[in-house]
Write a structure and sequence with these properties.
The protein has twelve helices and 15 strands. The protein has 383 residues and is an alpha/beta fold.
């Protein structure tokens, strides 16, 4: 009887040990193998000029950068969300942007990225504000647009930041007293850039000896440039969107104009298109491939490896835009528009490819501006 009881006891102990061992192994396996957490998919509306006059300069590079950023963000296991794009082509027109905004709002999206120009942003930002939908433009830079409401934000540095900083930078190296200006009178950004320049020139006592205008899609600038050359300015400041920049530079050199040119937001593609005529041209911007920031150099490398070309400043700012949005999504209490808006407004000192990034009280970006110059066919830091 004693032996039987003892055998039963041993059997029970062995049985319990086996059960605990199995449970323990399962517990260890759970520790070793990470538990897959369900991630919420966030649909973001993209308003891009995939066709039209800005398709190659804005649309394609921006789309590429956003795809690169999206892949990186979605692969980050620390995020409890993934991003999905819904894309509409605005054909580089304000009307196209309005149509896209209305469709995305009708579909119930909380966030829209785009449009790319100040002219279009001026039309659609009020629509986003009225419908309480977050709107982020990565490239529009005319003053006052983010002040249209608390649901609208921008990533590009605005003209009132870039213009005074840029003029001060070149005045330290080049002692000029007479300038001429040339700008696109049909474009909101170019008109605002012209106004900002004139304000700075007036403050610094710099004489404006000629002011000339053109319109988007113009191809011949010889009359305007000839009148500018007659006044013998030291520097010519041009405010324009990409399609006209290279032609202006080449035609100015063909006419024998020796004044230095300053063009807002010049890209590597503009430099390549203008060829030797771009040499020595200065640009005011918020980003450049030459900026020695580890995150920036990694971005340039990854972009080049994936697409076989260097990013431009439009694609760079759009890459920043998605990372800024991702930071807000991570910090938002919920994924509705109001919570995302509040999280965006509270972003301060976020490390990005443009350096430490913040929003001011109007929803405009705050980070260090850059001045670049074309040297030996490349955009390098102006020093």
């Amino acid at each position: 009887m004693f032996k039987k009881t003892k055998s039963n006891f041993v059997y029970i102990v062995v049985f319990c040990f086996s059960i605990f061992s199995i449970l323990g192994c399962e517990r260890i396996q759970q520790v070793i193998e990470p538990i897959e957490i369900e991630r919420e998919e966030i649909s973001i509306g993209l308003v891009l000029p995939l066709t039209g006059r800005l398709g190659s300069t804005f649309g394609e590079p921006i789309y590429n950068a956003l795809q690169l950023a999206k892949d990186e963000i979605n692969e980050n296991p620390e995020n409890n969300f993934t991003i999905n794009f819904i894309i509409m082509d605005d054909m580089a027109t304000a009307d196209g942007a309005i149509t896209a905004y209305n469709k995305f709002i009708e579909d119930g999206l909380s966030v829209i990225l785009g449009p790319v120009t100040s002219s279009a942003a001026k039309e659609v930002f009020p629509i986003a504000q009225m419908n309480k939908v977050v709107a982020i433009s990565s490239t529009s830079a005319a003053r006052g647009l983010s002040a249209l409401g608390d649901y609208v934000f921008r990533i590009a540095l605005t003209t009132d930041v870039l213009v005074p900083n840029g003029v001060d930078a070149i005045l330290t190296k080049y002692n000029f007293s007479k300038v001429a200006t040339l700008y696109d009178k049909s474009d909101v950004f170019s008109v605002d850039s012209e106004k900002a320049l004139l304000e700075v020139f007036n403050q610094k006592g710099i004489e404006v000896v000629a002011t000339e205008t053109f319109q988007a899609n113009d191809e011949d600038f010889s009359e305007q440039l000839t009148r500018i050359e007659m006044e013998q300015p030291d520097v010519v400041f041009v405010s324009s969107l990409p399609p006209e920049k290279a032609s202006i530079l080449k035609q100015s050199r063909d006419l024998g104009i020796t004044a230095r040119f300053v063009l807002r937001t010049l890209t590597e593609a503009d430099v390549e298109a203008a060829g030797e005529a771009a040499e020595g041209t200065i640009t005011f911007t918020g980003w450049g491939t030459a900026v020695d920031n580890p995150l920036n150099q990694e971005f340039v490398k990854n972009y080049h490896e994936k697409y076989g070309t260097l990013p431009n400043n439009y694609s760079a700012r759009s890459y920043v835009a998605l990372y800024v949005l991702a930071e807000a999504l991570a910090n938002a209490s919920t994924k509705d528009a109001m919570s995302i808006r509040d999280a965006l407004a509270n972003i301060t000192g976020l490390e990005t490819i443009v350096g430490k990034f913040s929003f001011n009280q109007d929803g405009d970006a705050v980070y260090d501006p850059q001045v670049l110059i074309v040297k030996d066919g490349s955009l390098v830091l102006f020093e």
